[in-house]
Design a protein that fits this description.
This is DNA repair protein. The protein has about 350 residues and is mainly alpha-helical. Helix content is about 55%, strand content about 5%. The chain has 3 domains: about 10-120; about 180-245, no CATH class; about 260-355, no CATH class. The longest helix has about 50 residues, at about 200-245.
Length: about 350
């Protein structure tokens, strides 16, 4: 079975489970009692003019932010976190329970952080107003250049000594962004070093995913199409050997393949085209007729007629078999190789060929 992307929106079972989880979370969140000051700073007003519960608004915003996930890992972690908070919100209905205190603290922390940021920003702006940076018209169109990756800090006449990024953590304004090893939907690994992905990284991941899908498709084709065809070919060869033994031929085993004679380029192209069209080749002693000098001479002399046979003769018609017998007889080798006195060998092969088609 071919590997495909997992799109949660197109999966009916996942969609039903996600909607049921969303409704259960919103219903449980509305039943949690919150302090008055936190209700006032809550989710605002709905379209109908009613006050939105802060917890219900948080659940809605989180579902909206996670609806674009297609990775099995992210979808599984989001669903498991939703079921975990469903049990917490169910127990948080009791005001004096530890779960209720935990939910209140979760809402209070971001609100306190926003209040402190606003107060610090207002105090700094009132005490020391930032001077406006005057820029000329030429500087507006120029982008700020990044420093080079490596800088030579050695003195003149000394061996080169380089220093560069990463910069020390003391001068950074935010935690250092370390590249992480991630995997896309089909499991192809790559390094994520920032979000959103640059176009070059997206194209690289997409190209490697296409190559991986092509390899999987070739393996599936070999198992589902080529292996049964090879089994049918083995059955055909076994049937030929049985008919040869029934006809009383002395050599029943398949002869050792001799080196292929030197054919012209057109004759070799005809042979490849003959094989690609799926038509059975005339068989001499169970081997490939193209390795025998008799057949090679026939092909070299009658390339035009062979092309007309392959173009006009439908599958199951015996005209090219009769023409092959005539050409071999005209080559001076007598009767067809492998034919007995009564000529029953080739007729039995033709009968089996009609049965298989």
């Amino acid at each position: 079975m071919r590997h495909t992307f997992f799109v949660p929106a197109r999966n009916s079972r996942h969609r039903i489970a996600a909607l049921a989880l969303y409704r259960a979370l919103v219903r449980s969140a509305r039943q949690v009692e919150l302090p008055t000051e936190q209700k006032q700073v809550g989710g605002g007003l709905s379209s109908s003019g009613k006050t939105v519960h802060p917890l219900a608004d948080m659940v809605k915003r989180r579902f909206q932010s996670n609806k674009s996930y297609t990775s099995l890992r992210l979808v599984y972690s989001s669903m498991s976190a939703g079921y975990k908070f469903l049990s917490i919100l169910t127990k948080a209905r009791i005001v004096d329970s530890p779960e209720h205190d935990r939910v209140v603290n979760l809402i209070r922390q971001p609100q306190a952080k926003k209040t402190s940021d606003r107060s610090s920003g207002s105090s700094s702006s009132s005490s020391q107003p930032k001077p406006k940076k005057q820029t000329t018209s030429g500087e507006k169109g120029q982008k700020k250049k990044r420093p080079p990756l490596l800088v030579n800090v050695a003195e003149p006449g000394q061996p080169p000594r380089y220093t560069g990024r990463p910069r020390p953590a003391s001068i950074l304004k935010h935690p250092r962004r370390v590249p992480t090893l991630c995997a896309e939907s089909l499991g192809y690994p790559f390094l994520r070093y920032r979000k959103p992905h640059p176009p070059t990284l997206d194209s690289m991941v997409a190209r490697n995913r296409m190559l991986w899908e092509a390899r999987v498709a070739s393996v599936i084709r070999a198992e589902e199409e080529m292996a049964p065809a090879a089994a049918l070919e083995d059955r055909w060869e076994d049937a030929l050997q049985e008919e040869m033994a029934r006809a009383g031929l002395p050599n029943v085993s398949v002869p050792t393949v001799s080196p292929m004679p030197a054919l012209s380029a057109e004759a070799d192209a005809i042979r490849q085209e003959y094989v690609q069209k799926g038509r059975p080749l005339p068989v001499e002693d169970g081997g490939d007729p193209f390795i025998y000098p008799v057949w090679a001479s026939v092909v070299q002399r009658s390339e035009g007629r062979l092309k007309r046979w392959m173009a006009r003769t439908p599958r199951g018609d015996d005209r090219y078999w009769k023409a092959f017998e005539r050409q071999v007889r005209k080559s001076g080798k007598g009767s067809v190789v492998g034919e007995d006195e009564d000529g029953d060998f080739w007729s039995s092969i033709r009968a089996q060929r009609h049965d298989s088609t």
